[in-house]
UniProtKB/TrEMBL annotation:
Origin species: Rossellomorea aquimaris
Organismal lineage: Bacteria, Bacillati, Bacillota, Bacilli, Bacillales
GO molecular function, a single term: DNA binding
Annotated ranges, domain Resolvase/invertase-type recombinase catalytic: 2-147
Coiled-coil segments on the chain, per record: none
Protein's UniProt name: DNA invertase Pin-like site-specific DNA recombinase
InterPro entries: Resolv_N, Resolvase-like_N_sf, SSR_resolvase
Length: 216
């Protein structure tokens, strides 16, 4: 299994280079001890309270690869400090990536308070997903009840003269708006039918339409 080594020091002082080199050397050995193949070694010289670190952004990209099974760190403070630490650990665990700590000679052991916070964050995210899906279903139901017929607007739904998915059905936006759906509900409804639109786009297209009608 492959792993990523992540090293961090807090400043860009030359004296910190030695610490980075030591972390790398120790974590390479840790990878060998746990039979991980090192896919990448990332080094950051930045405060642990900051999320905007080049190495962190690279790390988050790498863990999307299913071959990456673990991230090796010296200790949890190398990932980050404060809220940044909690956020990054949550991102890693959500991708089902193990966090191997040299301090623990194996998987990172979180404190009871940190574990509680991460569990709460995960629970909130799950309920947000459920609410989002409920909102889409509600919007789709209301749209269909009010005459929206998506199969007549998409080419890959059987109508060769219909619109492409990337286009926005302005007439449907106007119709749904007249039926008192909010712009957020309209956007969620259209996304459910395959249109890649945001609330802002829906609002903008509606305003453009109304302006054109007024100027006609």
């Amino acid at each position: 299994m492959e792993a990523v080594i992540y090293c961090r020091v807090s400043t860009k002082k030359d004296t910190q280079e030695t610490s980075l080199e030591r972390q790398e050397e120790e974590l390479v050995k840790l990878a060998q001890d746990h039979q991980y193949e090192v896919a990448a070694i990332i080094k950051d010289q930045a405060s642990g309270f900051e999320l905007d670190r080049p190495g962190v952004l690279e790390l988050l990209d790498l863990i999307k690869d299913e071959t990456i099974g673990a991230v090796l760190i010296q200790d949890e403070t190398r990932i980050g400090r404060g809220n940044a630490k909690i956020a990054l650990i949550h991102c890693l665990l959500k991708e089902e990536v193990k966090i191997i700590s040299q301090t623990h000679s194996g998987e990172l052991h979180l404190s009871e308070s940190d574990s509680m916070v991460i569990n709460i964050v995960s629970m909130v995210e799950e309920y947000q997903r459920k609410l989002h899906n409920l909102k889409i279903r509600r919007g789709m139901k209301r749209a269909v009840e009010n005459g929206f017929q998506p199969h007549k607007n998409l080419k890959n739904k059987g109508n060769v003269d219909g619109r492409e998915r990337i286009e926005v059905p302005v007439e449907e936006i106007v119709r749904l708006r007249k039926n008192e759906l909010t712009f957020a509900e309209i956007a969620a409804t259209l996304r459910g039918f395959g249109y890649d639109v945001s609330k802002a786009t829906v609002h903008r297209r509606f305003k453009e339409y109304m302006t054109s009608v007024e100027n006609a």
